[in-house]
Amino acid sequence: MNIQFVNTSEVTAELTLTLEKTDYQENVDKALKKYRMKASLPGFRPGQVPMSIMKKRFGMDITVEEVQKMVSEKLYGYIREQKVDMLGEPLASEKQKPVDFAAEQLVFIFDIALAPQFDAKLSDKDKIPFYTIDVTDEMVDGQVNAYSQRGGNYVHVDTWQKGDMTKGHLAELDEDGNIKEGGLQKEDAVMLPEYFKNQDQLKKFEGVQVNTVLTFNPSEAYEGSAIEISSLLDISKEEAAEVKSNFSYQINEITRYVPAEINQDLFDRIFGEGTVTSEEDFRARVKQQLQDQFVRDQEYRFLLDVREYLEKRIGELQWPEAALKRIMRANNPDKGEEYVEQNFAGSIRELEWHLIKEQLADQTGIKVEQDDVLETAKEQVRAQFAQYGMGGVPDEVITKYAQEQMQKREQAEGYVARTVERKLGTALKDVVKLDQKTISLADFNKLFESKKEE
């Protein structure tokens, strides 16, 4: 057996693997003997088929199989041993001639795409910005109000005000203002007058009380919207388009949504029973919660700045474009050439970032364990619960949900990628010089907007 590795450019190489029949014949003979033990042919008992017949019937197929195994083993073994910095998979060379597996010598030629060489290592001489979001009292007020709104409930009231919901009896009126015989009527018609498009019709509800009977015009209130009118009266949109009459509306019930009071009941609901016992502590916990939520965004921004800094420092790299496009086509057989051309530049940028991360991970010595990935998934689940005001969810519940998410392949891969980046970001903060900056949430968000514009 002979392997020749020749660089055809800085980022491409050609690997030629030559096998002599003596290299693989022993493997073929062993495979034939093993197959013979279970082979069953007419006229012969299992294991008793003459070897001459076995070679004639199955020799070539087994030869091809064993040669392919050996080629794969030797090919990847060489790449590992020689530490070839390969991109993607080896590609059959266009120079490759059809292989005659009956020949004494077999030649296999592969095109190898090589990673461009660059240095992405960082040190304390590299200065990277690190942004901390300033959590203001106004932001805390907003979150406290959000928790209060989510924890509220509906109550019955006597007098209507903006935002209230009404329920009552609707009846179509004739031109004289009397209930129209055979006209449209609806019991328990529910309305939110606040959403009327006509302000004159809305004013008719101001200050009205339960058991009030008022007159209004649905067509004017909703400016002729057939969808709104059909929903209100339970009729088709075609019928609703013809409704122009006034209606009487006897209000039987007024319901108001009342936010939860800032008290112990709300504290227990958000952070768990007895965890918080005063409004001052509650606001402090909310502030800490917001700061914790921003940690992921701040570290994500930091890693983006590391990426941008290194991409600028490294400069433009030479890539084996032809080979990478072949790999991209092979990985996307259902996509056309247009797909490759449209996505190639983006894939190259992501490939460069992948290679940068590999160097940084090697420099910092980070390792990702299963428990690390689980913790990333748990953080995601906690954030999802927090969005719904559920901050005191037991750890066993969080863990259960996280483990269920990790059963999904795409989700699991995403958690692994985020774990790598999270650990990398943490490690790099101890390597580089941080340019600490405290900014508002609005200015922090603008950092991403300005990037999109570029």
Share of helix among residues? 40-55%
Report the sheet with the most strands, covering strand number, pairing sense and barrel closure: 5 strands, antiparallel
Tertiary shape: elongated
Determine the structural class based on helices, strands and strand pairing.
alpha+beta
The poorly predicted ranges are none
What separation lies between the terminal Cα atoms? 54 Å
Number of domains: 3
Please indicate the percent range of residues in DSSP E strands (runs of 2 or more): 15-25%
> pLDDT average, as an integer?
90
CA gyration radius, whole angstroms = 36 Å
Strand segment count: 11
Give me the strand/helix succession: EEHHEEEHEEEHEHHHEHHHHHHHEH
Number of helices in the DSSP assignment:
15
Tell me about this structure.
This protein starts with a strand and ends with a helix. It has 15 helices and eleven strands. Strand 1 (2-9) and strand 2 (12-20) form a beta hairpin. With 454 residues, it is α+β, with helices and mostly antiparallel strands. The strands form three sheets. Strands 6, 7, 8, 9 and 10 form a five-stranded antiparallel beta sheet that branches. A four-stranded antiparallel beta sheet has the order 1-2-4-3. A two-stranded parallel sheet has the order 5-11. It folds into three domains: 2-114, Trigger factor ribosome-binding domain (Alpha-Beta Plaits, 2-Layer Sandwich), CATH 3.30.70.1050; 127-144 and 268-453, no CATH class; 153-258, Chitinase A, domain 3, CATH 3.10.50. Helix 3 crosses helix 9 (279-314) and helix 9 (279-314) crosses helix 14 (409-428). The radius of gyration is 36 Å and the shape is elongated. Helix content is 50%, strand content 19%. The relative contact order is 0.11. It has helices at residues 21-36, 51-81, 137-150, 199-203, 218-221, 226-233, 237-240, 264-271, 279-314, 321-331, 337-364, 370-387, 395-406, 409-428, 441-453, and strands spanning 2-9, 12-20, 86-92, 105-114, 127-133, 153-157, 165-172, 185-191, 213-216, 247-258, 433-439.
